[in-house]
Amino acid sequence: MARSKAIKKQVKHLLGIQNLSVLEAKEILKESQNFIKLNRSGSKKLDVLRGKTQINLFFEPSTRTQSSFDLAGKRLGADVMSMNIVNSAIKKGETLMDTAMTLNAMHPDLIVVRHQDSGAPNLLSQKVNCAVINAGDGTREHPTQALLDALTIINSKGKIEGLRIAICGDIKHSRVARSNIYLMNMLGAEVNVIAPKTLMPDSINQLGVKSFTSMKKGLESCDIVMMLRLQNERMQGSFLPSKREYYEYFGLTPDKLKYASKDALIMHPGPMNRGVEIDTKLADDINVSLVKEQVELGVAVRMACLKLYCK
In the predicted model, is pLDDT for residue 241 greater than 70? Predict the structure, then answer.
């Protein structure tokens, strides 16, 4: 029993950017760089996690995050199991804690979890003997998305420190916005957030950002423009008159992009609602859009996280 407790104390979790030090964040980004070339090579397989078991536990729909964690684990040689929530006991009323006890009895080495409730990964980490990586919880955090966004910016701009980054859209309900605010501030960027008043948190300025309700003012001199989708599934009540009106004032168009720096680049965590938060031509313009790079580098970042936390 004493040995088991000692092992548990040594387990590290990736629960949010707020839990990371600058050195830890930079270590993940440095490790991620090592996997970019590997993922572009003919032989992408390593045995770094050979004999390790990774469980993907996604309570919310996901395409990019779940598939990239799945691919990352397999490329590192882990045994990867993605649980089918629709057909699981969870749909029959099983609690998160009962699920945690069940999974823990299988002796996994790492659990990747996405949950609709803020704080669920933290709670899970207290009940299992393995590492837990947060793949998005409620409106709280999405740490690996912020890390892959940072890696994308570094690879495109050469740095983050000193850049002006605009995060535009549904700030109120976005865990991506929060994690990016924490990380970009940590790495020395200046962060602007842009949203209609109904989608702007009251205490947002306490996070060390400048808030704007005007795209023209908020995008001024920005090097990176990060667009967010409307989180309709988290909205209870009426936040917008119409999507058409939202696009007119807050959707990113070629004309609005001119407010930013001449060499500004645009990003989007996906999925994109074209014609709502971003113009289709801009989203597909390889000269300004980093969307495809974000998807590609997401695998490298998640490989780095799995390697560093699955020990």
Answer: no
Under a CB-based contact definition with an 8 Å cutoff, are residues 299 and 30 in contact?
no
- Token pair listed for 26: 């930079």
Q: How many CB atoms lie under 10 A from the CB of residue 295?
A: 17
CA–chain centroid gap for 140, Å, is 11
Name 182's Cβ contacts closer than 8 Å, sequence gap at least 6. 16, 17, 18, 141, 146, 207
DSSP class of 44: -
- Measured distance CA(118)–CA(138) in Å, rounded: 4
Confidence bin at 83 (pLDDT 50/70/90): confident
pTM above 0.85, yes or no: yes
Token couple for 284: 């597909």
134-163 in b/e form (b: 16+ CB < 10 A) is bbbbbbbbbbbbbbbbbbbbbbeeeebeeb
Residues 6 or more apart in contact with residue 206 via CB below 8 angstroms = none
Please, which pLDDT band fits residue 27 given cuts at 50, 70 and 90? very high
Q: Other CB atoms closer than 10 Å to residue 37's CB: what's the count?
A: 9
Token pair 């030090």: residue: 21
Q: What is the mean pLDDT of the chain?
A: 91
